[in-house]
Amino acid sequence: MTAEAPPAEVVDKVPEPAPPSGVRAWMSRHPLAAYAVRRFGLYLVELWGALTIAFFFFRLMPGDPIQTLIQSLQQNYIYNQQASAEIIARYRAEFGLDGNIFSQYLVYMKKLILHGDLGPSLISYPTPAQDVILRSLPWTIGLLGISAVLAWILGVVFGAIAGWRRGKLGSRIMTNLSIALSHVPFFFVALILVYVFAYTLGWLPARSAYDSNINPGFSLDFIASLLKYGLLPGLSIVVIGTFSWILSTRMLMVPVLGEDYLVYAEAKGLKPWRILTRYALRNCYLPQITAFGISLGFIFNGNVLVEQLFNYPGLGTTLVTAIQQLDFNTIMGVTDIAIFSVLTAVLLLDLLLPLLDPRVKYWK
Amino acid sequence: MRILTAVLRTIRNSPKLAIGLAILLVMVLVAIFSPLIVKGIGGSTDPLELAAYERWLVPGPDHLLGTDQFGRDVLAMVVSALSVSLQIGAIAGLISTVVGVIVAFVAGYKGGWIDGVLSTFTGILLVIPTFPLLIALSAYAKNVSLFQVGVMISIFSWPFAAKTIRAQVLSLRSRPYVDLARVSKARDLEIIATELLPNLLPFIGVGFASSALGAIFGLVGLEVIGLGPGGVIDLGQIIFNAINTGALTLGAWPMFVVPIVLLTLLFAALNMVNIGLEEVYNPRLRGVAGE
Amino acid sequence: MSEKPAGNAGERSPHVLEIKGLDVTYSTSRGDVKAVRGLDLAVRRGEILGIAGESGSGKSTLAVALLRLLKPPGQVTAGSVLFHPAGRSPVDLLKVDGEELRVLRWSALSYLPQGSMSSLNPVMRVEDQFKDVILEHAPARKASLGELIPRLLGQVGLEPRVARMFPHELSGGMKQRVLMAIAVALEPDLVIADEPTTALDVTIQRVILQSLADLRTDFGVTLMVISHDMGVHAQLVDRVAVMYEGRLVEVGDVRQVFKDPQDPYTQQLIESIPKMGRRAS
Questions:
Q1: 0.95 surpassed by complex ipTM
Q2: Which of A216, A25, A62 is nearest to A135 (CA)?
Q3: All domains of chain B in start order, with CATH
Q4: Neighbouring chains of B at 3+ CB pairs within 8 Å?
Q5: If pLDDT is split at 50, 70 and 90, which confidence band does B25 have?
């Protein structure tokens, strides 16, 4: 889904008469279904395009992973003799590195799509890369998912209030703070937070995801430990994310406040809170839903650095380790998962939008 | 001359723009004169040389910001690293802007299927997480030149510039004077050069400033996790050294704090320029972005 | 027109609204502009009063000021507007604020905006836009909403299914009628209608004017109709007040004014309408 070309437009007229026959007739009878089908088709194209770009990008990168593998095997198993050409060829086949790049591509995509198989991981050979990734996935979903949603909710609410009370001192402070901080990279805040709260004050831990003395499980201690260890990395994302959403919500809010229906709501003598929530906010949070989907990739990028800085056992840390070790199947796997998750989230939000916004026309 | 007075008037009208530009100007001057400043700090010795001084000296009159694990003067390092960071920003900003402008013009002005393909492509690059690709690229790039690093980062930042500018091209394309130029059979290039480009300059400026900012911080981000391209010492590299060597516990706090403060200032300055320009040239935003 | 003699303060006044010496000023960077100057006008209970004048004459500013919807840089600089809601003590509309003003709105003083404006919330169903205002001011009617909303819609000639529709599914004329039905939902004392027929096509204008006249008969509301269109006044109103450059230049019985305009500006206004005066009221 591109930012400026959603296949939707706001209309002000009654639908035109149904076109004559066939597919188009069906589409005009089932506009929502037609929209969903089109949107899903676009999703498949985007997914295929992005996965393909990622595949060729990594394959064209210099470096020979098999040599690295052999070296690490030699170290681990005290493997004295030189690897024979036969062994190398066998590993090449196993890692999907035999044949020319296009046949490699076909094999890779086939395994990925049909079996969800990303090939063996190099660092933890012979564990498949997908298993390595699945181990770290929940951590990222927890950290990034909760932080991103929290930042969005806080940002939209405070942004709406900042717009509503524009001109007032509190609102101006909030707005100027948002201008100053809205695009600061997450990791930068992470550095400062670590410096202040972990290093100088010593209040909170700066590394790992939970206290290693506590057994993971559904105990109160463990959950408390999770929260304590997740606070700083979470804050790094939430603080900046909130400021960005405040700024953009306020920008959407101010024009809405000048709309006729707000004047009308005031003339109706409704309570201010009701006008803010039912009239103003309801008309400006919808674009922010689309914006949320589009921002996910960007948040993931920032999250990679935050996880690495806090040594948080999520996808980002796995990715960085994999890159350091030239574990290309895992690198590609993490990238593929990130692409898949972001595009799928955007798709789901786009499909959700017609249910929330009655104005939008979803057929052509 | 007319352009100059217009620029001056714009700056006078927007305190944000003026402050941002002033901070930037100071930084650029420091960067330009960094070789002289470094020389001034070191006197007869090169303060950036390994083991130029004793290691881990705390800040004092001889070394205002102390020395690092190799006995280099931290102030001298910071000054030259600032210059490197700014150069990366300038190179990557320039490349992203040029690519962005070309893509935006072709897509926005030509429209049709060309726009469809280019916009979808730009859109995919904007939405998917590209940072893994950048980390991988950077990790394998050893001993690259500053220019190559700039090029590398701009590969990932041009879509942002392209998106901003395309939206403006679309809104300008439908203006009456462009139609007029078309009717009078002016060539596309002529219309772009004489009618569109001057009106887009402020937005191109915004595109440049934001991609430069993105590039500087992108590189710092890579450096901070220790995966920066080898051979380039920018502000991020100094922060990484500070974290990695435990400089904070050795009393060498300037190695961490000073680069962070400089980057924050740089960030604030470029952000103020961006918002100032948008407010001046996009009256719809005036009083919307802030008061 | 009720012509009872004026009683004591608490009694039923023959007037719903008494405007005295109203001044509205817009402060701009190039000095102040007076949009309404020293306006005196009384609105009689049960009448339809028309406010005429070209654009820029201050008639819309007057409406906005009376509804207390004036936004900076607009400001009321002088005058009083005494409002006599039935069953409540009279209030100066310019002096009330906050909760007191909010309670007065719609149940006593309601507003009928131009249908072509986007006054209906685009993301709420029509019925919900009835509900919120009714429940705000008359929560006791909650149980009868299911019957009340279709009846109100029926009153302005709309089918009950319109209640389930969204504003973008309605035509301009339908929107205007929905707004009319909402305006009278709580039987207010006074409805201020700002250009109720502008931007509608001629046949629909006729129907809307008829419905407005019916509303007065059915609900006994007092209507203040602001329109630049002298034809609207000729067809609908009892009395007409003519504004020019912020001042009231003439006020009187609509037939009288059309037959024998006193002010040269009124004369011009009347002459500017093609074939007028045949269907006066």
A1: no
A2: A216
A3: 11-49+64-284 (1.10.3720.10)
A4: A
A5: very high
